Amino acid sequence: MKLARRTLLLLCPALALQAQPAPSVPLEVAREALGQGKLRVIDIREPTEHAAGVAEGAQLLPMSQLPQRLAELPGKDEPLLLICRTQNRSKATAQKLREAGYTQVQYVEGGMSEWVKRGWPTVKP
After folding, report:
1. Between the CA of residue 90 and those of 1, 7, 97, what are the distances in Å?
2. Low-confidence stretches of the chain (pLDDT beneath 70)
3. What is the pLDDT of residue 13?
4. What is the pLDDT at residue 10?
5. For the chain, how many helices (H) and strands (E)?
6. Residue 108 phi/psi, 5° resolution?
7. Which residues have C-beta within 8 Å of that of residue 38, sequence separation ≥ 6?
């Protein structure tokens, strides 16, 4: 007998995290969070991409190095924003982290390409 999906979610809340896409935040929220030091923003672009400029205050943690550097992330229940170039990698990475138990991870809409397009400041890493 197959249990209904709703019943499964009630019995195992962790499935709900897997079933829902990782939430996003607008670019303006990420900029404000960085400016006020409210949230950790992690730039998961690769070093060659970082060389073009990063948002001041963002932690640089390339996606390719993330599995070996998970200890550098905040606790699984602490707020965390991920940003990449266009939001594709940060969205996928946020979803994987949610599946691994990070309940407060979100990705930044538009990514650094939109940040630069808006003329917002960047710094060299």
Report:
1. 38, 31, 10
2. 1-20
3. 52
4. 46
5. 6, 5
6. -95, 125
7. 32
Specify whether the CB–CB gap between 43 and 60 falls below 8 A: yes
- Scan for tokens 């996606």, then name that residue: 63
> Residue 78: left (phi > 0), alpha (psi -120 to 50), or beta?
beta
The whole-number pLDDT of residue 2 equals 41
Cβ atoms 61, 82 nearer than 8 A: no
> Within 13 A of 78's CA, how many CA atoms are on the CB side?
8
pLDDT value at position 38?
82
- pLDDT at res. 20: 65
CA 15 to chain centre: 20
pLDDT value of residue 5: 42
Tokens at residue 98, please? 């949610």
For residue 41, give the amino acid letter. V
- E strands, 31-125, are 40-43, 59-60, 80-83, 105-108
The beta strand positions in the chain, using DSSP E, are: 24-25, 40-43, 59-60, 80-83, 105-108
